Amino acid sequence: MPRSAQAMDEEQQELAERAGRLFSGRVEFLKSAPALKFLPDPDCPEIAFCGRSNVGKSSLLNALTGRKAIARTSVTPGRTQELNFFEVGEPTAFRLVDMPGYGFAKAPPKVVENWRKLVRDFLRGRVPLKRTLLLVDSRHGVKEVDREMMRMLDEAAVGYRIVLTKADKIKASELDAVIAATGVEAKKHPAAFPVIHVTSSEKKMGIEELRAAVLADAEI
Ligand SMILES: Nc1nc2c(ncn2[C@@H]2O[C@H](COP(=O)(O)OP(=O)(O)O)[C@@H](O)[C@H]2O)c(=O)[nH]1
Ligand SMILES: [Mg+2]
After folding, report:
1. What topology does CATH give the domain 5-218?
2. Protein residues near ligand 2, an ion, with CB under 5 A
3. In whole angstroms, what is the distance from residue 110 CA to residue 116 CA?
4. Between 1 and 29, where is the model more confident?
5. Which residue among 87, 98, 184, 201 is least packed, with the fewest CB closer than 10 Å?
6. Ligand 1 neighbours by CB, cut-off 6 Å
7. Which of 48-62, 70-84, 161-175 has the lowest mean pLDDT?
8. How far away, in angstroms, is 207 Cα from ligand 1 center?
9. Residues paired with residue 196 on neighbouring β-strands, in sequence order
10. Which family does the UniProt entry place this protein in (predicted)?
11. Distance 146 CA to ligand 1 centre (A)
């Protein structure tokens, strides 16, 4: 028997409330891993965040967790080349993984190659990785460097949600166009979710919905 719309609404509501409690409760930095041998034990679900340097990843992590500086917001793009792990919940319900940003100018080829290897090996081999969030700046839309990231996710068969950031920075009409174009792009990628998330860490837009989505992903 199909579930009623009301039952689904109630489930969604319950999920959103649980997500709100988890993200406003214990969130703790666990460790940085500059190479796979430093990864924490694969003993709980993980959700990873990736995107170009300066896309607003640290700001989004801070907004999701309601902290000012759980993840450092930086004006020096591309400095970190590590996977940063944060635990959410008491006891830990899941981990957030802050992946190193990409696409920064003037990166030496060796740095780019290290980035590619670390990210690819992590995506391919990480058993508890449930989902990745691919952040895209609303003002720029999907760029070629993002497509490379999308191809890596497709190849590793890690499902991902595309999250538009800094939605407060552009006009509503422009935002609609970017959402539509991003949706078209997502359809070309087998591991991409068709639904595009729209957020602003500055204006706290789309944050509650994204918390619920992350929790749902962690529980699959
Ligand atoms: N207006 C606006 N600016 C943002 C938003 N999110 C991030 N920024 C700014 O974009 C810059 C890069 O943000 P950051 O979180 O450090 O990006 P990261 O390099 O991806 O971690 C900073 O100057 C932030 O203040 C947003 O939602 N709205
Ligand atoms: Mg950052």
Report:
1. Rossmann fold (3.40.50)
2. 57-58, 74
3. 10
4. 29
5. 184
6. 51, 53-59, 73-74, 77, 101, 165-166, 168-169, 200-202
7. 70-84
8. 14
9. 162
10. Belongs to the TRAFAC class TrmE-Era-EngA-EngB-Septin-like GTPase superfamily. EngB GTPase family.
11. 17
Tell me the two tokens of residue 169: 């920075």
CA 68 from centroid of its chain's CA atoms? 18
Q: What is the pLDDT of residues 25-45, one digit of tens each?
A: 999 999 999 999 999 999 999
pLDDT for 77: 52
User: Above 70 in pLDDT, residue 74?
Assistant: no
Q: What is the mean pLDDT of the chain?
A: 93
Query: Do the bridges between strand 94-98 and strand 46-51 make them parallel or antiparallel, or are there none, so unpaired?
Result: parallel
Per the structure block, which two tokens stand in for 55?
Answer: 């896309």
**Res 190 pLDDT > 90:** yes
Helical axes 207-218 vs 5-24, angle rounded to 10° = 100
Q: How far is the CA of 53 from the centre of ligand 2 (A)?
A: 7
**DSSP letters along 158-202, please?**
--EEEEEE-GGGS-HHHHHHHHHHHHHHHHT-TTEEEEEEE-BTT
The predicted pLDDT at position 111 comes to 87
